[in-house]
């Protein structure tokens, strides 16, 4: 993925409108595209109105309980092929909340899709721009092959063993908690299904939002995404920089996926997602944790 496309991986409604209308907006490689509305569970909101031509993607297809870890690689590849996605396909994602779309975006980047975009502001921004929606559900058109062995970017998603090594290498690595401050210091777990409180030992708070369902620090007040350079400056104040190996985590992966997508836009070469985050780490008594203000 070129650095130009990565920097412009968040696109305005006008860009998507041109694309779905048959145009060729700036930075579009021209190898075909798929537009996906991403949500969890039944497509109720999708059926009330969506971007013309968009197909609904249920996040249950790419992650599953009990820890909400990404599905196995072969299963992820099958999902992408079922939805008509190859390495060269331009994939445009949106959803409410946008962190669900970011979760799907990270899965696709990990698999090896070269051009993954987020529709800035999602459907509200699309409507605010005066563009029409449709209510007719669209079925995906499958492709025969993804075009490579999944994953093509295996280092984009890391596991528990890698994070354990990272916390023992504070000079070259930083593990970043993208939960609310109350979760970070252990006042609350943040989820009904998570009982453990605290954070990964040595992890640094990377901001996020007020709770598990909001990421106000990563978004502008109008629901669009913050400029990536603004976040880079915010993170740098806490020692979170692209020169280090960075692993973002949250409760189960949605908030951290949005943080990682911002780092991807910045071109950080060693940014990754710890999946499945605190849900997995906090349930393992062998993993070091800490609570209270750092």
Note the main attributes of this structure.
Oxidized Rhodanese, domain 1, 2 domains, 5-stranded parallel sheet, alpha/beta, 30% helix
What topology emerges from the helices and strands here?
Blueprint: H1 3-7, E1 10-11, H2 13-20, E2 33-39, H3 44-48, E3 55-58, E4 63-64, E5 69-70, H4 73-82, E6 90-95, H5 98-111, E7 115-119, H6 122-128, E8 157-158, H7 160-167, E9 173-177, H8 181-184, E10 199-200, E11 204-205, H9 228-236, E12 245-249, H10 254-266, E13 271-274, H11 278-282, E14 289-290
Parallel strand pairs: 1-7, 2-3, 2-6, 6-7, 8-13, 9-11, 9-12, 12-13
Antiparallel strand pairs: 4-5, 10-14
Written account of the structure:
This protein has 294 residues and is an alpha/beta fold. It has two domains: 3-128, Oxidized Rhodanese, domain 1 (3-Layer(aba) Sandwich), CATH 3.40.250; 154-290, Rhodanese-like domain (Oxidized Rhodanese, domain 1), CATH 3.40.250.10. Helix content is 30%, strand content 17%. The chain is built from eleven helices and 14 strands. The protein has helices at residues 3-7, 13-20, 44-48, 73-82, 98-111, 122-128, 160-167, 181-184, 228-236, 254-266, 278-282; strands spanning 10-11, 33-39, 55-58, 63-64, 69-70, 90-95, 115-119, 157-158, 173-177, 199-200, 204-205, 245-249, 271-274, 289-290. The strands form four sheets. It has a five-stranded parallel beta sheet with strand order 1-7-6-2-3. β6 (90-95), α5 and β7 form a beta-alpha-beta unit. α9 (228-236) crosses α10 (254-266). It is globular. The chain starts with a helix and ends with a strand. The mean pLDDT is 96.
């Amino acid at each position: 993925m070129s650095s130009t496309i990565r920097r412009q991986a968040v696109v305005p409604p006008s860009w998507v409108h041109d694309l779905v209308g048959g145009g060729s907006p700036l930075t579009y490689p021209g190898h075909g595209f798929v537009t996906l509305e991403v949500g969890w569970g039944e497509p109720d909101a999708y059926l009330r109105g969506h971007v013309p031509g968009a197909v609904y993607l249920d996040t249950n297809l790419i992650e599953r309980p009990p820890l909400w870890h990404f599905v196995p690689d072969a299963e992820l590849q099958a999902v992408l092929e079922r939805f008509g996605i190859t390495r060269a396909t331009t994939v445009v994602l949106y959803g409410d909340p946008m962190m669900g779309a970011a979760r799907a975006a990270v899965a696709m980047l990990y698999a090896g899709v070269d051009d993954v975009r987020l529709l800035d502001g999602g459907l509200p921004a699309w409507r605010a721009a005066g563009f029409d929606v449709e209510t007719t559900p669209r079925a995906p058109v499958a492709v025969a092959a993804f075009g490579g062995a999944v994953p093509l970017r295996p280092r984009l998603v890391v596991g528990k063993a890698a994070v354990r090594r990272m916390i023992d290498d504070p000079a070259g690595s930083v593990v970043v908690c993208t939960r609310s401050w109350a979760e970070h210091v252990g006042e609350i777990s943040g989820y009904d299904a998570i009982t453990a409180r605290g954070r990964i030992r040595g992890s640094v708070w990377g901001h996020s939002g007020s709770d598990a369902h909001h990421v106000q620090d990563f978004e502008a007040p109008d629901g669009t995404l913050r400029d990536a350079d603004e976040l880079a400056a915010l993170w740098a104040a806490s020692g979170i920089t692209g020169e280090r190996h960075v692993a973002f985590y949250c409760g189960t992966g949605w908030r951290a996926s949005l943080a990682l997508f911002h780092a991807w836009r910045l071109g950080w070469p060693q940014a990754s997602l710890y999946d499945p985050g605190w849900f997995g780490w906090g349930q393992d008594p062998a993993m070091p944790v800490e609570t209270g203000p750092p």
